[in-house]
Design goal:
- There is one protein chain.
- The protein has helices at residues 3-19, 27-31, 33-47.
- By secondary structure, the protein is mostly helical.
- The chain has a domain at 25-49.
- It contains 3 helices and no strands.
Length: 66
């Protein structure tokens, strides 16, 4: 794709977005930096949470039968 055709494509897409009532993305939204930071933060906090374990009530099974 040449530089000129890329510019035309960008202008057409920008016009479609304006017609649809969409606001243009700012720099941070275009590079996804805030979303990456949110994902890393969620991963770190989840990794250090106490694991959730369900203990079922029932007869004890001998270790040899497990």
């Amino acid at each position: 794709m040449s530089h000129d055709s890329h510019d035309i494509y960008h202008l057409v897409e920008e016009k479609k977005a304006k017609q649809a009532g969409e606001k243009p993305l700012n720099l941070l939204e275009r590079i996804y930096l805030p979303e990456i930071a949110k994902g890393v933060w969620r991963t770190i906090t989840t990794a250090f949470k106490k694991p959730f374990t369900i203990e079922y009530i029932g007869p004890d099974t001998p270790a040899k039968d497990r």
